[in-house]
Specification:
Length: 432
């Protein structure tokens, strides 16, 4: 197949790598705009990811068989619609269906209609509404910007003044105030063609910037899979009670959701709850999930893009653990410093990891430099989480990027057996 991948991140590098190594290949791979890591595996095209007409024109010129749209911004902008209108198969929901991620208020409405368990929420447009919602739920407060914010639009705090300040800052838009969900988080990606739902394996992302889950929320500082602590039956439960009802509700509304439904969950003391839906693969969870996938990815994505997912045999997985550690630029998630030189990637890969590029750029004189917040994702695999962790961190040690930071505790608690899903009433049921 001739496949065009849209996006620039480590998630897209992981997708391209999985497409390049699948046993259904070789495929002819293209990316737009891509990044220097992707350039080793695919031909890059300087097309803006959010420009639907330009992406569709490129796909037509290439006579692509499949276009895979990675990030949320082009999906919400309707890039998958533009590609489909050009008669080319696209993996990713159209603009209206991508509102499941693009608007938290819309997602809450769909969840209510589909009886999907999620945090109680108030959608607010005035300071008065915000204040009474904060007081109704009490601390800790959860305040969310309604629109897309790259994982940074959410503030979780016990400080009422801080909660109110964030709400005020978001009030040019709609603000969602939510009930606080305790318990460990799980990301489960469900591939769907709008009718059939095929879950991938669950992963956990570390969203806070610093060790011990301290500091501000980020796009994600690391991830691991599998989750040895996850209750048996979790995946089936999530498909039956969350993903399939959501996909069915979207179809019922006449806006079928095809692509990947990212189900972000909290396993709370009162049962499983949806924290968020995203309309795309997660970053950095994709880096570990795809490291474990044995079934060729291109076959799965093409089937989802052409309404033939029901024909795909059950997915096969490697009996290995995977851990990814994000190397972030100086200042991330605040004002990041660009232009610092990156060295040691080949040395890291010689230890057995693979290094995925996110915010990198090659200068005119050929040097690789930082050009974004999350710069690299280093992926290690091993027989269990402890071995995968050791591998990933041995790789990270080889990489030099002045001023960079990374978390030292990705998958640490899980590898020691210290994570527990406190209790496990079925979704929607209340524990005694
Ligand atoms: P979101 O943008 O909705 O994914 O939220 C980003 C992060 O904020 C989540 O991954 C959680 O860690 C945290 N968060 C969001 N909603 C809640 C909630 N209702 N209770 C506790 N933490 C939350
Ligand atoms: N890792 C969180 C996200 O992709 O939204």
């Amino acid at each position: 197949m001739r496949i065009l991948v849209i996006g620039t991140g480590a998630r897209e590098h992981a997708l391209v790598r999985a497409l390049a190594t699948g046993s259904d290949g070789p495929h002819e791979l293209h990316a737009a705009p891509g990044n220097p890591g992707i350039a080793a595996l695919a031909m890059l095209h300087p097309v803006e990811a959010t420009d639907g007409a330009a992406v569709a024109a490129l796909a037509r010129d290439l006579a692509a068989d499949l276009v895979v749209v990675g990030p949320e911004a082009p999906l919400v902008a309707g890039v998958a619609d533009a590609v489909r209108e050009a008669g080319i198969a696209a993996f990713g929901p159209g603009r209206e269906a991508a509102a499941l991620e693009g608007s938290k208020a819309f997602a809450k409405d769909v969840m209510a209609a589909a009886a999907v368990p999620t945090a109680m929420a108030h959608v607010c447009t005035t300071v008065d509404e915000v204040e009474s919602a904060l007081d109704a739920f009490g601390a800790p407060y959860v305040v969310k910007d309604d629109g897309l914010a790259a994982g940074k639009g959410v503030v979780v705090t016990s400080d009422r003044a801080e909660a109110l300040a964030h709400a005020r800052a978001c009030l040019t838009n709609t603000v969602v105030i939510e009930e606080y969900l305790d318990g460990p988080e799980v990301s489960l990606f469900c591939v769907t063609d709008g009718a059939t739902v095929v879950p991938l394996v669950p992963a956990q992302d570390s969203k806070r910037a610093y060790d011990g889950d301290e500091g501000p929320n980020t796009g994600g500082m690391g991830a691991y899979s599998p989750l040895p602590w996850a209750p048996p039956g979790l995946v089936d439960e999530v498909v039956t009670r969350i993903a399939q009802p959501t996909v069915d509700e979207m179809a019922r509304r006449g806006t079928p959701f095809a692509g990947v439904l990212y189900v972000g969950l909290a396993l709370t003391s009162r049962g499983t709850r949806v924290v968020e839906f995203n309309a795309r693969f997660g970053d950095p969870e994709t880096q570990v999930v795809l490291a474990r996938l044995a079934t060729p990815l291109a076959t799965v994505l093409h089937a989802a893009a052409t309404m033939r997912l029901a024909d795909v045999p059950p997915l096969r997985w490697r009996d290995e653990a995977a851990v990814t550690v994000v190397v972030a630029a100086h200042g991330y998630p605040g004002d990041v410093r660009s232009g610092d030189p990156i060295t040691g990637i080949a040395e890291a890969e010689a230890t057995g990891v693979h290094v995925l590029h996110a915010g990198t750029r090659v200068t005119d004189d050929g040097a690789l430099v930082a050009a974004g917040g999350r710069v690299l994702s280093v992926v290690g695999t091993g027989a269990d989480l402890a071995a995968a962790r050791a591998s990933a961190y041995a790789g990270v040690e080889r990489i030099a990027l002045p001023g960079s930071h990374h978390r030292g505790d990705i998958a640490l608690a899980a590898s020691r057996g210290d994570v527990t899903a406190s209790s496990w009433p079925a979704a929607g049921e209340v524990a005694p």
